[in-house]
Design goal:
Layout lengths: L1 H6 L3 E8 L9 H9 L3 E11 L5 E4 L23 H10 L5 E9 L3 H9 L12 H13 L10
Antiparallel strand pairs: 1-4, 2-3, 2-4
Amino acid sequence: MSDDVEEMGPVDYLVVEFPGNRMTGKGLPLLVDLVDRGIIRVLDLLFIRKDEDGTVTVLELTDVGGEVDLSVFEGASSGLMGGDDLDEAGAAIEPGNSAALLVYENLWAAPLARELRRGGAQMVAGGRIPVQALLASLEAAESTPPGAGPAAA
């Protein structure tokens, strides 16, 4: 297993909230396309529901609803997600909603990561800037008059 890990690309996760427990499947074909093209590999995919009283329940793929066919992801469970991850995801969503938890390997970055590791480097941190935060920063920058930014102080 450690040899396999040495060959892997960076691994990311997403928690996608579905208000009112309504999952339309809109993004599912795009996710399948990313897998089919070898851009990502789904390591884990599971769904949770948060009841109004705050109770978080793990859902089976068949329980998610008849609106979306998730059979392509049957068995996508590497065991990477534990109870703490479920608790954290449950805390991130509002009562009355559900969420998909996705853990995926960035296959496109695997060759780079592998060569960096072979050269003795380590990827020690990573992050993601939420689009909403990026848009807010750009909007703030556009509304700041020239010469009024931090460099002018």
